[in-house]
Design goal:
- The strands form 10 sheets. This protein has an 18-stranded mixed sheet, with no helix packed on it.
- The chain has 4 helices and 71 strands.
- Strand 62 and strand 63 form a beta hairpin.
- By secondary structure, it is mainly beta.
- Helix content is about 5%, strand content about 45%.
Length: about 675
Amino acid sequence: MREELSSRVVSCTILVLFLTSVSVLTFSVEPVRAEAFIYIRADGSIDPPSTQIQKNGDIYTLNDDIFNATLVVERNNITLDGSGHMLRESREPPAHCGVDLSYRKNVTVSNFVVSGFAHGLWLDSSYYNDIVNNTVLDCGCYGIKLYESYGNTLKNNSVTTSVIGIYVLRSNHNLLVGNEAKNNQEGITLVLGTQNTLRNNTMSGNTYNFYAGGLFLTYYVHDIDTSNLVDGKPICYWINRCGETVPSDCGQVIIVNSSKITVKNLELKNAMGGVILASTRDSLIENVTSTENYCAIDLDHSDNNMITKNRITDSEAAGIGLTVSTFNNITYNTVTNTTGCGIWIEDSGYETVIGNNILRTNQAGGSYQEFEGAGILVDDSSRCNITENNLVKCAFGIVAGAGPATSNLIARNNIVSNGIGLVIAEGIENSVHHNNFVENDQQVSTLIGTTDAFDSGYPSGGNYWSDYSSIDSNSGEFQNMTGTDGIGDAPYIIDDKNQDRYPLTVPPIPIPIVWNETFYPIGISSNSTVSWFSFNESKRTISFNVTGPEYSTGFCNLTFANALIRDMWQDDCTVLINGAPPLNIANSTDGENTYFHFTYPHIGHSVTIIREFPLTATPFLMLLFVAIIIIALRKGPAKRRQPSSTRRAPQFSLSLCYRSGAKRTVFRKHYLKRSHG
């Protein structure tokens, strides 16, 4: 698989979709079943002779429908007029194509209805042909395909309910004007060609309406103006521009060989690439709302750009993809529900990825290929700064090294409730520290022996691991001195080659929970070891354990956003210890947060936070709003559980919950794998 991806050769992934044929038509005369092929030979003859095609000089006209046969043209400089008649394929598997114009020149094909073939009209190494006023539908692969073809005109054709409507591969200097691509998987796609011109084409109702590009700058050089519409919005296709702002009514944005471009406040949907920057630098993409694009934001050979505060949902390949790009800043974006990766960095370097929220990747499920489903994938890339991101419910939280990933910093990230929190596949000299690894099925997987550092030395420390419960009684570089230091007394063992020498006993940064698609940070500080943090969304329960030296006094500070308390618990929380009010507790609130501080002896008490109701409250409300926090304190140091591929269900002893009976009303490789050769 890796060799296939690295080769960067366009491969064909034919989606074998044998679509239902159009409704059966009623004829007064039983239609004649034709042979498998009807040829217009190089000498102009029709082979086999057919009464369905009338020849008049170099003009060939259909006078009846043709069923289950391919029309193969072997003569140049002719006109083939379908006169509204149908070429229809009803067999399975379907024939290769309806009209085959391979190696033809100066042929006009017009007024056909082509239905049910694998490909409707097929042009291979064909030149200066005109494809005009044809209707193509229900094709299992391409409606109209041009392969290594030059100077052809496609005009006023309608292609519907096929896999790809119009596909132009390795073809140059063709004109597409006035065509309609509707209700296909892909509308119009231009791959690995150059200097094609598009005017007044409309694409609508397709899974992905439009794409143009390839491996190098030349494959983005086309003449495409705003007369081309995707779901009623103009395509913005700019080449060699500087210092301009993209109009806010655009439906797709492709910027080529430009600089200082602003893309802001757009709503983009159903594109192969919502925003594509190719060989573009010093530009801004901000506050773009992307829905159901193949890749929402794609940078190819582009440097020094800012991608910030965008909202991306339901992408197929990646939310944000970078290929052969450097020094870009990807900050404070929210990416949810991707089938592939949240952020995919490929063959790039010196990228800054900070403060992004990535929720639920690999939503298609099934097996993973090349770590599709990573929240952040660093692939063949180096010296990237991956910090302060929230990776929640992904197949993989962060992957370093589907190909060699070197000298990357992975720090202060929340890696929560993922299949595997961190994968080091081919990583070398990456630095991993001050992250929260919380409730992942497997915290870390190292596929190839690594020399990565899982801490930043003493006294800075390593990472917080929710399945680590060793106490903090000692201090010092070798943990052999008296006094606590916030570092566990024993290392956290990852595998036989890797360990965190200085695991943190308390999360270094707030741990996020996701409620109603919103990330809420939960701040925890304590002199105890905090372990087994968990959030049960259906029960509205937050849980964790605390452990400390026997007979010492522990304290815990909790910080909750007021918005979370209001939305999930309806503003009421009360603390109990072993079912009774604590002796020492304080709480306060400000405009943003509510704070709890309480103490306890490390001898096995529990703490509960529960809503108190006034006597005048109705019985319904008393049932509706209850919030509970329970902290059970285990006596003495606990034996630390080693990481495993399947997480053991912990015995939660701190919980914060709400009970209610009421109902609550990528990245070139992916493009070219999908670009079917």
